[in-house]
Write a structure and sequence with these properties.
With 489 residues, the protein is α/β, with parallel strands linked by helices. It has two domains: 283 residues, Purple Acid Phosphatase, chain A, domain 2 (4-Layer Sandwich); 193 residues, 5'-Nucleotidase, C-terminal domain (5'-nucleotidase,  domain 2), CATH 3.90.780.10. The chain has 15 helices and 30 strands. The strands form eight sheets. A six-stranded mixed β-sheet has the order 6-5-4-1-16-17, with helices on one face. A six-stranded mixed β-sheet has the order 9-10-12-13-15-14, covered by helices on one side. The longest helix is centred in the middle third of the chain and has 18 residues.
Length: 489
């Protein structure tokens, strides 16, 4: 009978930190904070012999600490957090691809990605995999990115990615066939494609490639236990620094298989860990600078306003869509739900809160559409895939009334200012540059058809310039869900 040599490894993981460095205080209940997250990682590294810490993308975008330094501050903090491997998320390219490559040079931790390529010569932009050795075990990590990066880098024609899950699976197979040796003990995919796509990817993986785990991100899914697809555990821990995932794995090196696996989603709180004092000092130095510059109060709300989900009408969505349409030259503001980043804002709103809530500050474009084109756009936005949270969704300014029935895929009500929108009616709509640059992809209407109605033009160079001026000149703001969007099952 063959002998058994069992070894253990602990894999910690985070995803979608989004600059969530500061602890949240909800009536004395402290959660998150990168100094507590770092404290937990250090604690486990001191307690366990073989520890690997993984980050599954989207370190950047979401706080003024990140935005003020265009990610350099995040790299500074992440260098102290010291992940053993991280992958590229879609928001890693928010400051431009060239800047990301600069930030990679500043990072003292490896960043991997297998499917972001230069289209001219099909060469990869990043190292596609990382083989880590810990406790005599070799673990192969492979990084996979979401197709959303194509939308963010739309103007950079030489950049592409394998956007099809089938192609991504094939790429995993190529890497495993070429770089997985008989000495490789485990294979881990570090993905940033969302839980639904992780499930699809897992189904396509050949068992002979030997993929053992998928550590995911992008969809901000807070799992209580792993999802097992095709025998592969898939995990994700929401967003921000409020949770960390933990695998405790027993591996038989003779039979080359995992013999025991436990996973936990652990809340990061003062009850579970002490803060890392070094990280806390560095964080406080950044926070002090930000407080001095950004903590001025710019408005008040009548009450806290919410944005609980991106695929429904929300209070904050209505507020922002309305204020951007107010005294404008267009009829309807289409505010991307994903452009609003906070679940709750107010009642006191500081300049920092405003910037963190709408960090994607770009131009505002006005376009003329016919009623027929607008109907086609909305019908496509409300397709089945939208309810999985992977597509763009919109908040609409006052006057819009949409009732959509999922079961029949029909717009039962489609009105503006109380009147049915007719096919030959002309409407002036507005949207941010990100959505304009990806018009056909997001709405399934060729931009050339819309441009034939009227040449699209920029009506504002900064969304946040409009938001700030409105906030400063209006106090006690309130907004309600009014039935602008109604979804029937």
């Amino acid at each position: 009978m063959a002998p058994h040599i069992k070894k253990t490894v602990t894999i910690l993981h985070s995803n979608d930190l989004h600059g969530d460095f500061i602890s949240k205080d909800d009536d004395g209940n402290i959660t998150g904070g990168i100094h507590y997250l770092s404290g937990y990682v250090k604690k486990v590294r001191s307690e366990e012999e073989n520890v690997i810490y993984v980050n599954a993308g989207d370190m950047f975008q979401g706080s003024v600490i990140d935005a003020e330094y265009m990610g350099l501050s995040t790299i500074d903090l992440m260098n102290l957090l010291a992940p053993d491997v991280t992958t590229v998320g879609n928001h890693e390219v928010d400051y431009g691809l060239a800047h990301l490559l600069f930030l990679e040079k500043c990072a003292r931790f490896p960043i991997i990605n297998a499917n972001l390529i230069v289209t001219i010569n099909n060469s990869r932009l990043f190292q596609p995999y990382m083989q880590l050795e810990v406790g005599g075990m070799k673990i192969l990590f492979i990084g996979i990115l979401t197709e959303v990066v194509l939308a963010t880098t739309r103007s950079e024609k030489v950049i592409g990615t394998f956007i099809d899950v089938d192609q991504a699976a094939k790429e995993v197979g190529i890497i495993c066939d070429n770089y997985r040796t008989r000495h490789t003990d485990m294979v881990v995919l570090v993905t940033h494609i969302g839980l639904e796509k992780d499930r699809e990817l897992a189904e396509l993986l050949d068992p002979d490639w030997g993929v053992d785990l998928i550590i995911g991100g992008h969809s901000h899914t807070l799992l209580e236990e792993p999802e097992i697809v095709n025998g592969i555990p898939i995990v994700q821990v929401g967003k921000g620094s409020g949770h960390i995932g933990r695998f405790d794995i027993e591996y038989d090196t003779i039979r080359n298989k995992i013999t025991d696996l436990k996973w936990q989603c652990i809340p990061v709180t003062p009850e579970t860990v002490d803060p890392d004092p070094v990280m806390e000092t560095l964080l406080n130095s950044y926070q002090g600078e930000m407080d001095e510059k950004f903590r001025r109060i710019i408005t008040t709300f009548a009450r806290p306003l919410t944005h609980p989900a991106r695929t429904q009408e929300t209070e904050l969505g209505n507020l922002y869509a309305d204020l951007l349409q107010w005294e404008s030259s267009f009829d309807i503001m289409m505010m991307g739900s994903g452009s609003i980043r906070k679940d709750t804002l107010g009642p006191i709103v500081a300049y920092q809160d405003m910037l963190e809530n709408t960090p994607f500050d770009d131009h505002l474009w006005m376009l003329k559409v016919t009623g027929k084109q607008f109907r086609q756009m909305i019908q496509y936005v409300f397709r089945d895939e939208a309810w999985e949270g992977h597509t763009e969704f919109y908040q609409y300014s006052k006057g819009v009334r949409i009732v959509y029935r999922k079961s029949t895929h029909t717009l039962e009500t489609f009105q503006f200012r109380g009147e049915d929108i007719t096919d030959d009616q002309e409407l002036l709509i507005a949207m941010q540059t990100y959505h304009y640059n990806n018009f056909e992809k997001f709405f399934s209407v060729p931009i050339e058809e819309v441009a034939a109605n009227m040449e699209p033009r920029v009506v504002a160079t900064s969304v946040n310039n409009i938001v700030e001026e409105y906030f400063v000149t209006h106090q006690g703001l309130d907004a309600h869900v009014e039935g602008r969007i109604e979804i029937l099952e």
